[in-house]
Amino acid sequence: MKLNKKKAFLFGGCGLLVLIAIVVIWAANKKTTKTTTTQISGGTSTGNGTNSNAANGGFPLKSSLSYNSKVMDLQEKLNARIIGLVPPVVPYDEKGKQIEQLKVDGYFGSKTLSVVKFVFNTETVSEAQFNSL
Questions:
Q1: Are 124 and 76 contained in the same domain?
Q2: CATH, residue 103
Q3: pTM of the entire predicted model
Q4: How many domains would you assign to the chain?
Q5: DSSP string of 68-87?
Q6: 73 falls within a domain
Q7: Is 42 within 8 Å of 63 (Cβ atoms)?
């Protein structure tokens, strides 16, 4: 009888440890594979290669398929901000891959959006936010 109680206690303890390990692994995986949904919104092309919000100095900067020289400046500033960060405190793209550096191309695409969300917790960049970098 004592042997059965010992076995039950042993199996119960092992089961509890396995359950705790599964929860810890699941929580760590959920944190690192946090994905963001990307929407291309606003910013229609004016035909001259600038963002349509150029009338107000180009701000707020937002996701767009149009080239914008201010976005190039933003990408350079964001690169300076994220360089040297160590996981898990780093920006991730929509596929869960770590973004180590942005391509400075002047296009506010999904990776730029991911880093903007990481730094500012918004989908757009105001002039004040831009100047704070």
A1: yes
A2: 1.10.101
A3: 0.57
A4: 2
A5: -HHHHHHHHHHHHHHTT--T
A6: yes
A7: yes
